[in-house]
């Protein structure tokens, strides 16, 4: 694992200050994130979760399973992500992120920007304007990790991104295939149930947080 939590998203990532809702909201000392418009097109980065949990390797339920596949959009603006997760925790959220002001969220914070996780397995595709496939800048995630964590920042699991291939299309499916989308949604429990309206994940929203370690 690269040293440094997705803040998808590392409690690595250099952790940025929490987004603030003011008349002129800013992220913190580094200011708001900016949309990346010159991403190299064609490179595909993939991160696959390991078998064991980070903080509880003896968990009888086993680790969260899944992967993230990402590549720059055809116009070089932002990055398209294909996400698949299953065996998700049912409590432990939310992770705060103001989806109406994505520029004020941590660059690698996929928690809350792109909708709620409503079922297990969970599959989604979305575009994030602040991530980058351009090496050498802070928003580049190809040499980072993504982390799934609880709201208190306890790490559940993480995986390194690696360059897998080069192509000319955006990802529409994940390397491990698609799960049965008719699975009954997993209900939130505990803190997640109380705050179901604001529960968040990274690149997504859910009972846990997902971030890039930048």
TrEMBL record:
<dbReference type="InterPro" id="IPR036423">
    <property type="entry name" value="SOD-like_Cu/Zn_dom_sf"/>
</dbReference>
<protein>
    <recommendedName>
        <fullName>Superoxide dismutase copper/zinc binding domain-containing protein</fullName>
    </recommendedName>
</protein>
<dbReference type="GO" id="GO:0046872">
    <property type="term" value="F:metal ion binding"/>
</dbReference>
<feature type="signal peptide">
    <location>
        <begin position="1"/>
        <end position="19"/>
    </location>
</feature>
<dbReference type="GO" id="GO:0006801">
    <property type="term" value="P:superoxide metabolic process"/>
</dbReference>
<keyword id="KW-0732">Signal</keyword>
